[in-house]
Structures are given as C-alpha cells and as structure tokens.
C-alpha cells in the first residue's frame, strides 16, 4: 500500500475559503510533471475526509486514521504511485466543493452521497458503494417503524441526505455536527431516534447496547469520490483504480471487512483527546458529515 501520513491536517471549515495550497515542482528527474497536472503537490495525493465518521474514517486506539474510505484512498494512491495524505476537513467544506476548489485537497473521499446539487460543484467518480438511509432508535423509545416517530425527537447530522429526508418528512429534527455526537445524543437521551446512512447506523447499532436498528429507508443512494469539476484526468484515474479493485475482488473484501465481519480496529479518541458527552451547543454547530 502507499505510504500514509498518520498525522491528519486539521482544517477548520471557516478557513477553507482562504486556504490555498500551491503546487510543488517536479523532482530532479522530472517524474513529477505528469502528477502535477492532476495533483496539487506532485508525488502526494491529498484526500479531504471528515474524521471521525466510522467505519468510513476514524481514529484508532493509536491515533491513526483508518476506515473503509481510507483503505480505498490508499489503493488509489498506490495505483498512482504517490504518497497519501489525509486532510481532516469539515463536511460542509467537502460537500459544497469549497475544499476542492480552494486546493485544500485533490480528492474528497468521505462517505459522500452523489446528489444533483453536489454534482454541480464537483466531478464525481463512478459510485463505489450503494447506501440507503436507515432508522436507529433507543431501545426504550418504543419505535418499530418510521410511523412511530410522530411526537419524538429525531437526530440527524447537519448537511446530510438524512437531514434532508427527516426535515422533508416533517419530523421534530435536532442537528448534530458529526455522527459521533449524533450517536452520543441518541445514547444520552437527547433524541429518541436517528436517521442517517445505513452503513453508519448499522455499524453503530452493532456497537451499542442502548440503540437498535429499526428500518432501512430505500432512497437509492450511492457514494462517490469527488475532484474539482475540471479535473477529468484524476477522476479517470480514480475510476480505473475502482474498476481494478472490483475486478480483483479487493473492493468486496473491504466491504466484508468493514461492514459485515465486524473485525475492525477499535475506535480511539480523536487525536488523543478525551471524548465528551454532546452539549446543547454541539447539537447546533454548522458542520456536517455525509
């Protein structure tokens, strides 16, 4: 696999518009010239990812960024014969296209659903995962289906398709800036249920003693990898790498490992910081994930 910088760069969403990373020149042998056309910095693939969002991207017990998306990013970097750098970026900057347009990274790989609005701001790869929405509820909330949500508080992650669905359905919605705080809000009783991508909620249900997976919501969602709208060469290279992973069986192995077998690295605190219960303010910050 390609080398992976373990210290992810933290990039605040408010600073994204002002942050521009300029490209470096090629190496002495000129081998960076081809990379330079696709990448901000020759020899390095920079990937924006909103950490944590398990099992797609999160910190393990050693503080390393791991996950399904990270394994895919490593495979793409290896196919390009470059080093991988994960750039920690708020999801608002990712899904709006600001992170890509400001050259914060070359690719956005962060469990992001392909939507018509997002496709107007960035160039998507072929889908790499089918991912409907799902309903997760507290075990003591007496919820058996979506029809039982009337009068209850439903947690969602800001700027996600789950948030859009819950709002359009008219539920009493409470927003959280990331999936970790959303799940903590559910477990602490701030909300009675949560709506989000089934890959995330199914994973969380398997890890929780106080919440259970209730229902899959068929939305036909698919996840994609994004680049700047004009960077067709990089997306073509990504699609080639994804096709190779499919044909070799590597993609299926990764899906089984991260979503079905359950034998994944234990989650650690973000960059060594102690985890905390979500506060009232944390539930309304203007950031989001997937």
From TrEMBL:
> Which SUPFAM superfamilies has this protein been placed in?
Periplasmic binding protein-like II
Where does the Solute-binding protein family 3/N-terminal domain lie? 44-262
Question: Acidic residues composition bias: which ranges?
Answer: 264-290
Please give the residue ranges the record annotates as the region Disordered.
245-290
InterPro entries according to UniProt: Iontro_rcpt_C, SBP_3_CS, Solute-binding_3/MltF_N
| Subcellular localization, as worded in the UniProt entry | Cell envelope
User: Which GO molecular-function terms appear in the entry?
Assistant: ligand-gated monoatomic ion channel activity
Q: Does the keyword Metal-binding apply?
A: no
- Please give the family membership noted in the entry: Belongs to the bacterial solute-binding protein 3 family.
- The name on file for this protein is Polar amino acid transport system substrate-binding protein
